[in-house]
Amino acid sequence: MTDDLPAVIAAIRGADHITAICHESPDGDTLGAALAVAIIAERLGKQAEVVAGDPIPPFLAFLPRVDRVRSEPQLEPDVAVIVDAGDLARTGSIAREHADWLKRATLVNIDHHVSNPRFGAANLVDPSAAATCEIVALMLPELGITLDAELATCLAAGLVQDTHTFAHPNSTPRTLRVAADLVKAGAPLSAINRAIYADKPFATLRLWGLMLAGIEERAGGRVIHASMTLAMLTETGNDASASEGFVDLMGITRGADVIVLFKEAEPKRIRVSVRTSERADAVAITSQFGGGGHPRAAGCTLDVEIDEARAQVLATCERELARGDAGGR
Ligand code: 5GP
Ligand code: MN
Fold first, then answer.
1. Do 228 and 153 fall within a single domain?
2. 19 and 160 fall within a common domain
3. Cα of 26 from ligand 1 centre, angstroms
4. Which residues surround ligand 2, an ion (CB under 5 A)?
5. I need a surface site. Which of 4, 37, 72, 259 has the fewest CB within 10 A?
């Protein structure tokens, strides 16, 4: 573990109440970690709340006590533990609409994004961790907390989400050891995998069909891209979270170095997901547009129409491939 574990432990121990905050468009890692932090805080005798600015996607409804998640902080600012957010702005509406609340709180930043600028008063940022939930699991002995099935399920959700159930190269022996402890404590690994990656409604398969039909390649097949438009969501009766997992389906393509998914959130607000082979750096692409992430998986948002977003991002992808080919890193 890197950074300041003792300062993070001291902040958590010293708090009267703890607000655990997720990143925007919450996934299993940020939600699993935030719910776990709240459970830990309560076991330490503190008041706790979990805050996510955006709605919980239906595929995470299985998470223990997910109904407790609030859209804004209600506790007085004390210690705010921000989990899995590569920067403070990634908390979305919390950073935008509750800046004063955040200023009055002691920020504890627990994350695994390499680009994290250490925005907290105490920071625990470990890019070697496959998931923020891995970091939280490794903190438990320091906090004197033992695992139970509820806590283990929350933490396992983060591992399953961020490693694609241990298939991505970010899974290390340590990740698997943590996972083994979680399963031993009662985390239903197979059911969590199914909830996150399968169990899709028929309507979502119809949406994916439209997205797959529109898939295109560039740079001789080294760049593969697809788009999800608002019209497709309306036509198939889905909400935006239905795209979750589609980028992994694109990733089964042989020979592609860059996979890009464009998601129209509003007519001029395009969320972009980028996945890369070791021949391209996903963060180098998304950081051109104010985004971030991990070397193999990153994201950004462009406030332009979808055609324009495609033109700008795909040109950047081709430049990044050329840079990688030239050994220019
Ligand atoms: P996804 O494509 O699954 O939304 O995100 C891939 C990875 O990039 C995740 O680790 C996510 O946290 C990170 N990421 C996605 N969008 C952004 C963004 O706009 N800013 C930053 N800093 N990271 C992002
Ligand atoms: Mn994560």
1. no
2. yes
3. 10
4. 29, 84, 132, 162
5. 72
